[in-house]
Amino acid sequence: MAAIADYVDGRAAGFPIRRVDVASLAVLKTADPPYTALVGRVIESVGRIGKYLVIRTVPGPDSTADPVISLVIHLSRAGWLRWSEQLSQTPPRPGGKGPIAIRVHCGLPGEGFDVTEAGTQKRLAVWVVRDVGDVDRIASLGPDVLACTREEFGAILAGTTSRIKNVLTDQRTIAGVGNAYSDEILHTARMSPFASAGSLTDAQVDTLYDAVHSVLADAIVRLEGQTVARLKSEKRTGLQVHARTGLPCPVCGDTIREVSFSDRSFQYCPTCQTGGKVLADRRMSRLLK
């Protein structure tokens, strides 16, 4: 999300929002202010809070006088942002079967972006708010993982008995890590996804904390300057275990394994992370005896 925010910020900040087309009213989770209030306002900055994209706008010469109105976007698992230098001027068809949910005309004339969502599970969400704290999901976020000190990170882990995989991806506990990078972090830390967070030793917490920062820092550097269109493919090239089921682990050569649930899955290396034991691939997964 940081890479998307940086890319859009570099192309849209300082420019007005010329038009907003909404193809799916279902993605809008707020009605006051209306999305039309964004038109004519100037994009002050584009950033992120956890995994939420925040487009902050200020009044333009022909817009509402609200000091700040923010467009907040959560892409969920199947959503994406597509920037175009030749954005179609034809509004997407409301209620159509295409992937486009909203279209925002901003940046230089003719530029802007579509927010899209693939698949049938519609979880993409968009808010238009005067205060980002009005987005209940943001208000309930835990501290940003990269802003946590080692002591704060350790205290969060010590306060739960949940599996470490769940802790890393629970945005209410620690914000900013998704499914893919949690797999990468645990692989780098050589830690089982099913390890109990509250049972980790100080040394293990140190290792995990370092892995969080090294994996995310590497991702930020690798994705910096990439176009939005290339971010997904570039992200995949840097992954060692996530989405690599059946391929050899680049560290030890063992076969990458997968645990699947009804609507998600994660990957790991048995040799690097579970002492060679294979995790059962079913909803109530546990270590095979």
From TrEMBL:
Gene giving rise to this polypeptide: fpg2
Catalytic activity: 2'-deoxyribonucleotide-(2'-deoxyribose 5'-phosphate)-2'-deoxyribonucleotide-DNA = a 3'-end 2'-deoxyribonucleotide-(2,3-dehydro-2,3-deoxyribose 5'-phosphate)-DNA + a 5'-end 5'-phospho-2'-deoxyribonucleoside-DNA + H(+); Hydrolysis of DNA containing ring-opened 7-methylguanine residues, releasing 2,6-diamino-4-hydroxy-5-(N-methyl)formamidopyrimidine
Family: Belongs to the FPG family.
FPG-type domain ranges (all copies): 240-274
Cofactor(s) required for function per UniProt: Zn(2+)
A biological-process GO annotation: base-excision repair
InterPro entries recorded: DNA_glyclase_Znf_dom_DNA_BS (IPR015887), FPG_cat (IPR012319), FPG_N (IPR035937), H2TH_FPG (IPR015886), Ribosomal_uS13-like_H2TH (IPR010979), Znf_DNA_glyclase/AP_lyase (IPR000214), Znf_FPG/IleRS (IPR010663)
Transmembrane segments: none
A Pfam family that the UniProt record links to this protein: Fapy_DNA_glyco
Name of the protein: Putative formamidopyrimidine-DNA glycosylase-like protein
Alphabetically ordered keywords of this record: DNA damage, DNA repair, DNA-binding, Glycosidase, Hydrolase, Lyase, Metal-binding, Multifunctional enzyme, Zinc, Zinc-finger
Span of the signal peptide: none
Domain annotation Formamidopyrimidine-DNA glycosylase catalytic: ranges: 1-96
Annotated source species: Gordonia insulae
GO molecular function: 8-oxo-7,8-dihydroguanine DNA N-glycosylase activity; class I DNA-(apurinic or apyrimidinic site) endonuclease activity; damaged DNA binding; zinc ion binding
